[in-house]
């Protein structure tokens, strides 16, 4: 993760997600777009929680889902799971 020394992180990782509707923004008066928010949560060695929010459109989320499914399939084929 940018700005975080990966060696200082422990191996635990949690994922929270929610789906919401963006109805407007400071640049677009009427947006009406589905937004998926993912919070990647891990714990630093000192015990503090590190939360990295990621917002994406529904199309971007579907691309991410497809990519994760492809990675999972390749790992199964390589007998890594």
Automatic annotation (TrEMBL):
Organism the protein comes from: Plakobranchus ocellatus
Residues annotated as domain COMM: 11-79
Protein name as catalogued: Comm domain-containing protein 6
Pfam families linked: COMM_domain
């Amino acid at each position: 993760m940018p700005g975080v020394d990966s060696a200082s992180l422990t191996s635990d990782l949690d994922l929270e997600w929610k789906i919401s509707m963006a109805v407007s923004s400071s640049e677009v008066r009427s947006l009406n777009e589905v937004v998926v928010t993912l919070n990647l949560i891990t714990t630093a060695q000192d015990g503090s929680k590190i939360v990295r929010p990621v917002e994406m459109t529904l199309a971007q989320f579907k691309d991410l889902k497809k990519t994760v499914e492809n990675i999972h399939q390749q790992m199964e084929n390589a007998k890594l799971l």
